[in-house]
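Morning run. Coffee first, then this:
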Amino acid sequence: MSRLFFTGLWVCVVTLLSAYSAAWWLVNGSLAKPATEPTWEGLQYVKTEPINVPMIRGGKLMGYSVLELVFTADSTRLKEAPVPPELFVTDEAFRTIYGDDSVDLDHIQRYDLKAFADDIRQKVNVRLKSDIVQDVLVDQISYFSRDALKQ
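And here it is:
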C-alpha cells in the first residue's frame, strides 16, 4: 500500500515540475522573440494599378512595358498623407522607364531592379516631403513588342 502511495506522489511531483518547466521555457526560453528583431507591424502594402509605358526609340513606337508595383508604407503616415502616395509611385515609375535611354530594346540586358526601386522610393519621398514609402517591390514586369501587338 505504501508503495502505491509513493508512486502516486512521485507522478504528481514529476507532472508539476514538467508543467512549471514548460511554462517557464515558453515565457523565458527560445520561443520568446528577441527585442532587437525588427518588426513589420504598422506597415501596409499598397499595390499600384498596371502601368503601361510606351517604348519610343528614334521616333518609332517599339512596344509597351507593363509593370505592377507594390510599395510598403507606414499605415499611420499613409492615412495622414494629403494625397495618395500610389499616384506618385506610378508617376515616378512611368517617368523613370519612359525617360531611360539606357534600355536598348535591340540588345536587351538585365535591368537593375534594386536601383530602379530605390530610385522610385527616394524620389517619391522627396516629392511628398516625408518618408512615407519604405520599400518598392516589383510585382510584375512585361514587355510587348509592337509586332506582337499586331497579331
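The two ends are 93 Å apart (CA to CA). Good start to the day.
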